[in-house]
Specification:
about 400 residues; mainly beta; six-stranded mixed β-sheet; Stress up-regulated Nod 19 protein; Stress_up-reg_Nod19
Amino acid sequence: MKTSLLPRKFHRLSPTSSSSPLLQTELNGSIEGLSCSAIWDVKTATFRSPAFTLAPGEVQNTFYFGSTFVEGHIGIKAFDAEVIDEDGNSVPLNEVYLHHWVVYNYLNTSASSSNGMSSSTILGNDGVCPDYALCQLFGLGSETRLTSTWLPGPYAIEVGQYDNEAWLLNVHAIDTRGTVNPLGCLECRCDLYNVTVGEDGRPIKDGYQGGLLCCYDGVHCQLKDGYVGESRTYYLQYTVHYLDWSDAILPVKIYIFDSTYEASLCKVEYDVPSCSSQNGGTSECTHVQESVMEVPIGGDVVYGVSHQHAGGIGGAMYGQDGREICTSIPLYGNGTEVGNEAGYIVGMTTCYPEPGSVQVVSRESIRMLSTYSRSISHTGVMGLGYIAVYPHSEASI
């Protein structure tokens, strides 16, 4: 059984030049792009998801069709998102853990389908997982507040080219207040959720210890005996930084690499076993998940980042000749304030190569490595790599 961030109601459109990465940054007004002398008139628009209410231990994993977004033909420069409360205050990760948010555009292709829902066709990113297991344009997790996603210079993600284009927002949040094992809850351990049947009603396969299949909308993680807490209402607040589209903007393609890719399948998540006590603190107490995937269309790499969960040490992408494309390292919090929550990944370092200095070639095999600590076991972790590529003819074989 595979996991996916894609709702079952969608069809898929073949990739086009429209695409986008994970995004977040505090930028307003006219901004000078990295490695670019031009000043761009960047606009911002801030929205909120529909309100969602969580009790202690409860999981929210909802797909919001028709989410509010910027209208018109635009180029996305950056995308911020975080969980806030009813008063607009940022919510700390040790209260509501943001497992992930993803957003992508789609087309309403007909008024209704046999189940009474509108039939839709995903536009999505430009690859590279088969069956579009990771089809989002933008998406992050706990690292969302401190991960730069600004696309430099004249580069942007082109969207809004179709009259019937709409947006879907998926928010997966876990309220860990009062839980017996917050780390186990945010890693979606099946025993802590007392889950043996998936959201589709089918039994979960033997040996599956934790992950998205045990962490669906409405389930509850185990609370401490006697703990009583109030339900609270939250929103995902997201800000789009964008340009009105013009011929001066260079559109990029977004590729997502999955370290679990094997036999034409992106499994999206995996488990990390703990090391033996005698190997603690040594290189043998790390786990490396590795895959090789092809780039559909080559070009200049203008941005790169990885996505990992707690326990992650770093992600890296390499060309088929061994050259480094991007290495991204997690930033762990060491305090109590929002954005610095101790023990949580609160940011990922990013890559901004000098223009033209890093390229990928069409159909080139890219090696994706994700490294985790094995000091304790982990379930349902991820090891993804994202790059933004500006295609040009010199990058084709």
